[in-house]
Amino acid sequence: MSGGAIERGRATRLFAATRELVGQDDRLLSPLLVLTLLSGVVDAVSLLGLGHVFVANMTGNLVLVGLSLAASPESSAAGPVVALGGFVAGALLVRAVAPRHVDHRSLLGVCAALEAVLFVAAALNWSYGDGKALPILLCAVALGMQNAAVRRLGLAGLTTTVMTSTLTGLVAGRAEERTASTSRRQTLSVLTLIAGAALGAVAVRSAGTPGTLAAVAVLAVVVAVTVLVRESGTRSGARA
């Protein structure tokens, strides 16, 4: 085989691999944006309905713990510590049960389905329980699982919760990192989280905390079904 034919073969394989990767990114964009919306709604629920605590963004909880250690007025470490513990437990659960070689898109779908169960459990506990600690814990475990699964995907510009690094990358990222698709994802991610927080605030006022958590569970089910059905279709097409 001539050198030109070899190079053309390599170029063809590279093009096919790139096209497949771009296609996967496009298929993942909508479910990941729904998870970003979910994160905004859930943090609005936790701030307005469960006390001054975050269950999706852990940076805020670390600050709240620091304020409580300094005996700042109206600061309590109880809720933030529970959320931090639940978040870490959720991430560790994904690490423990999902080996590195597992298909990351299927993992995302399974985690989204488990999130839905946890949100429903949190809503029921809020309705019939006598405290906020368990709903905070359940929601934080769900978001810890989500973050671990999304991190496995490694899709640039979409983390679903961590907007500090997203904003930094959007405005000050290295030139080689600031591709048009990455910048678009970063912009959509930031705007979607803001929309989710606003939607969550409206939902808590109109439907209450349990109703909003139930709606969040529906969003998680939508993501789970979308990802798992698409992944099943991709595998069937590959076998064919």
Describe the structure.
There is one protein chain. With 240 residues, the protein is mainly α. The protein contains 7 helices and no strands. The chain has helices spanning 3-48, 58-69, 78-97, 104-128, 133-153, 163-172, 180-239. The relative contact order is 0.17. The chain has one domain: Growth Hormone, Chain: A. Helix 1 (3-48) runs antiparallel to helix 5 (133-153), helix 3 packs across helix 5 and helix 4 (104-128) packs across helix 7 (180-239).
Helix content: over 70%
Give the tally of structural domains. 1
Order of helices and strands: HHHHHHH
Largest sheet: none
Q: Number of helical runs?
A: 7
Task: Report a brief summary of the structure.
The protein is built from seven helices and no strands. The chain is mainly alpha-helical and 240 residues long.
Key words describing this protein structure:
240 residues, mainly alpha, Growth Hormone, Chain: A, globular, disordered N terminus
